[in-house]
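Fresh eyes needed here. Kindly weigh in on this sequence plus structure tokens:
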Amino acid sequence: MTSSYTSNLGIEKPATGDQSGTWGDTVNVNMDIVDRAINGVGAISLSGTTHTLTTTDGALSDGMYKVLVLGGSPSGTNTITISPNDQDKLYFVYNNSGQDAIFSQGSGANVTVANGDTKLIYADGAGAGAAVSDFTANLAMSSVNIDGGAIDGTTIGGSSAAAGTFTTLSSTGNTTLGDASGDTVTVNGTVQPGVVVSGSSSGDAVRITQTGAGNALVVEDSANPDSTPFIVEASGKVGVGTTAPESPFNVQRNGTPVSGSPSTVATFQSTVASSQSSYLSIVAGATGSTAQAAIFFGDADDVDIGQIMYRNSDNSMDFVVNASSRLKIESDGGVKVVNAAFNPITTDNDLSFDQSASNNFKCTPSGTGTLTFTNHTDGQTGNVLLINTGGHAISLAATTKGDANLATTISTAGTYWLSYYDDGTNAYVTTSAAFA
């Protein structure tokens, strides 16, 4: 009589009266098959793009292993066909082959085990239409620790609300949190910083698209709702300390924003009481600074044609009009007005007058010298009160222009009133007669 075999493992069942004297060999093979099916780990070497996983009746074969460890050197995605197609199979698979592996048994569904992944799969042995299914695809687990790897193609809390705790949430490609109208994503954190966005690309690091009437961004402190938050309205207005900015940039120290001109770009307000003040602080440099703090005015043609500039180097304030300095307030309160007649007098007894320091000078020379003007400023006018009681000889510098008798006149003992006009290169000087 002929032996028969079990449907799924191919274990030999000798017929009655068959294999007299050889039963031991058959039983030994059958025990090895059972052992392989219960706990056997088989190394399956793949090559090319196809492989057949065969179970041979009555003989140890690769299709009988419980655990399949895929290795070898496949040239691409490898399709593994489970044969024969009428056997039920349950496999634990670890793919370490370097390529994805597709398990198939018939024309039904297949299962792909990605390189580096493990899966529990089963084949239904339905013949030509046999299918392979992923037993782990729809596991219901009440408590799971995931300490590594990735979660792909699934929804956490898809059928009902669920909470997840993550120390790191990373992705390759696009990640969507919330996919329906009205979805809210809340990030709570007690450790600073709570949320960090770090990247290096030519695209936006953070993009917020608001198509409704609500604010695009709200940053609150401890209160919710916060009456003095940092917000970005849907229109693009930015409010600091207010929920209703009146200008494109509105900083509100306290009180309610007050609307101004529609051309206003930025407002800084304190409106809670009539005694409230508002200050705008511009600080340049550290201790001992020689830097400048300034406000620029202009248009698209010249963005800084007008300026108000504080110079820390000499603690003076400079007012620039039409790109030129027109008025300067010195640290001692002296005012220099360019192209104007008035300016406080500056005492300078060395006969060399710095036009950047003043317009008007008083000079009492103690010896001979040369009448000189430095830092020539185009259009500057001024006066020099010359008290030459000693009758010291005074000559003219090359850039000091006067009539033929000027040097002789002012070298004679007396007090003189000199007036000058500068064209940026030369100072043109006239003098009075000696005062009695």
Remarks:
- The chain has four domains: 4-134, 217-270, 292-333, 341-431.
- The chain has a mean pLDDT of 87.
